[in-house]
Design a protein that fits this description.
Length: 157
């Protein structure tokens, strides 16, 4: 993200993104913004673009459901959007409340015009985020990198 001049990191606290959140908070050149709900991050990304800045939205798959209506802003306003989504409700999930949205993430995002790139192996995270950032900041797309439970692990309950 540094290579793409991302200077704003919007997030709802999430264990799947904890390391990246901590790195962004510790970086004096990055504005880390804790959100009360994920759709605020969609609006923040649009505002960043209008202000000639670049943002990334970090969220868990359950937060995608909160963003559905706001994604129309990105689509209709032709704003770029980069989001990294830590997935729940898939491989090894033990919490039944995570299943519905976890299974709906890809179809919902794609229905709203968001390109989804899935990561299952650690060595693919960097190249996939790099590809997504290029697709967003050079070509003006909305792209979600889905960090699967095969990659980040399922939470034990």
């Amino acid at each position: 993200m540094r290579a793409h001049d991302v200077t704003q990191v919007a997030y709802v606290p999430d264990a799947g993104h904890a390391h990246l959140i901590d790195l962004s908070i510790d970086d004096p050149d990055v504005h880390s913004i804790a959100l009360t709900t994920e759709e605020e991050g969609v609006a923040l990304a649009a505002g960043a673009h209008l202000g000639d800045a670049r943002a990334v939205l970090l969220m868990q798959s359950s937060g995608v459901g909160n963003c559905i209506n706001f994604l129309s802003l990105m689509k209709n306003g032709q704003f770029p959007l980069l989001t990294l989504v830590s997935m729940r409700g898939e491989f090894g999930e033990g919490n039944p409340w995570q299943m519905a949205m976890g299974q709906a993430v890809r179809p919902v995002l794609e229905a709203m015009g968001v390109i989804c790139l899935e990561v299952t192996e650690p060595e693919d995270v960097g190249p996939t985020v790099e590809a997504a950032a290029t697709m967003v900041f050079n070509a003006g797309n909305a792209v979600a990198v889905l960090l699967t439970q095969r990659l980040i692990g399922a939470k034990a309950f």
